[in-house]
Design a protein that fits this description.
By secondary structure, the chain is an alpha+beta fold. It is built from four helices and 18 strands. It has a domain of 162 residues: Transcription factor, T-box (Immunoglobulin-like, Sandwich).
């Protein structure tokens, strides 16, 4: 997904957040190498603010402007890949996709979704944790993980797309929107006319003039552990992932 992420990044990626939770597109996917094939690893993600600012979109200049200081940070959570823990051989044999991850702006969410403030910029982070079988594994907690972040995956959280070019590129690229493409996708990215129909990942259509509503759950299970800040427990040991 690297090339697609770069396309969105050049326009200023936006991700929809809803009360019910919305899946990311592009999806966060990684290919991993260098693991011990027989050892077990936990893969997880979190999201950190890029800065301490809140933004608004200026339609006359098609740009984001600082609107003030950031809102109070939402509760910190981590999203565990549902196949965790798994052996290195399994992780390395195929692309790992975090397609069950959902974003929400509901501070009281009890579904395990990632809680973000709207109109704030975020950086997704990817963490690989070695499941140390040693009895005293907690003593090596800070050495048993690696963290990665990719600048092209930064995005602005929104409740409705602000930049119509983002809307066009999402429709042109998202396979769930295939049935709603009425012209050549190559024309959409450079066309100033926004499309008349917007298609959420679930396939439900809404007019672009309406604010996207809540989505129904796909029934996917998200594993979240909240043990204070960015700490989590797996394999009997507790780790803390510090900020980059």
């Amino acid at each position: 997904m690297h090339a697609l992420w770069q396309q969105f990044d050049q326009l200023g990626t936006e991700m929809i957040v809803t009360k019910a939770g919305r899946r990311m597109f592009p999806t966060f996917q990684v290919q991993i190498s260098g693991m011990d094939p027989t050892a077990e690893y936990v893969l997880l993600m979190d999201f950190i603010p890029v800065d301490d600012k809140r933004y608004r979109y200026a339609f006359h200049s098609s740009s984001w402007l600082v609107a003030g200081r950031a809102d109070v940070a939402a509760p910190s959570r981590m999203h565990f890949h549902p196949d965790s823990p798994a052996r290195g051989a399994q992780w390395m044999k195929q692309t790992v996709s975090f397609d069950t991850l959902k974003l929400t702006n509901n501070l009281l969410d009890d579904n395990g979704h990632m809680i973000l403030n709207s109109m704030h910029r975020y950086q997704p982070r990817f963490h690989v944790v070695y499941v140390d079988p040693a009895p005293n594994s907690h003593l090596n907690a800070y050495r048993n993980f690696s963290s990665f972040s990719f600048p092209e995956t930064r995005f602005m959280s929104v409740t409705a797309y602000q930049n119509h070019r983002i809307t066009q590129l999402k429709i042109a690229s998202n396979p769930f929107a295939k049935g709603f493409r009425t012209t050549d996708p190559q024309d959409w990215v450079g066309n100033s006319r926004p499309p008349s129909v917007w298609c959420p990942p679930e396939g439900r259509t809404e007019p672009l003039t309406a604010k996207p509503g809540e989505q129904r759950s796909w029934g996917s299970k998200t594993l979240i552990s909240e043990t204070g800040g960015n700490s989590f427990v797996s394999g009997g040991a507790e780790w803390t992932v510090p900020p980059l």
